[in-house]
Design brief:
Elements lengths: L1 H15 L13 H7 L2 E16 L1 H6 L4 H4 L5 E16 L6 E7 L14 E6 L20 E3 L7 E2 L2 H10 L4 E2 L3
Parallel strand pairs: 3-5
Antiparallel strand pairs: 1-2, 1-4, 2-3, 2-7, 4-6
């Protein structure tokens, strides 16, 4: 009976996995985004790494079936980018590089950054996934931020910088 329950639960997740997709309801103004964000920075993406996270709580629940415990939906992959900073408008940042985490695909609101390009990043201390499931070991800490396509994070443009500077003075300009 337990195995049947496990398979039924797994089937439910697999059938419904295509239903979940990123949905952004409008875009905030620059002023609103600055207020909402924990960090507002400009920098260049210098590296990317894929990080696998495992929901240990779910694995414990289904530990009797090793094929279920090691697979979907109990693991997820996120992207960790290293951003070399050139300007800091907001944030408690103590180094010249920070880590930016995001989902690996647009279905989960992830941003696909390109190494070598300059971006304006509006970051949050906590992952947006944590609002759904707090049992995952999502990275957090000093100089770690999360972003997604629902924020104003984008390739660096003069227009966006001009808008930011209307509401926030540059706190740190890092020369390179």
């Amino acid at each position: 009976m337990r195995k049947f329950t496990n398979l039924l639960t797994l089937g439910f997740f697999l059938i419904n996995s295509g239903i979940y997709a990123c949905s952004c309801i409008g875009q905030r103004t620059v002023k609103e985004e600055i207020k909402y964000s924990d960090a507002v920075v400009i920098g260049k993406i210098i590296s990317k790494e894929l990080v696998t996270l495992i929901d240990s709580t779910a694995v414990k629940m289904f530990s009797t079936d090793s094929t279920v415990a090691k697979g979907y939906p109990y693991k997820t992959i996120v992207a960790r980018y290293e951003l070399m900073l050139t300007s800091v408008y907001k944030g408690k940042i103590t180094t010249d590089t920070i880590e930016i985490f995001t989902s690996v695909d647009g279905r989960s609101c992830g941003i696909l950054f390109e190494i070598g390009k300059d971006y304006i990043v509006y970051g949050e201390d906590e992952t947006y996934f944590g609002q759904v499931n707090n049992d995952w070991p999502f990275p957090k800490g000093k100089n770690i931020y999360w972003t997604n396509i629902c924020s104003r994070t984008s390739v660096k443009t003069k227009e966006e910088i001009t808008e930011i500077e209307k509401y926030r003075r540059i706190r740190t300009h890092i020369l390179r």
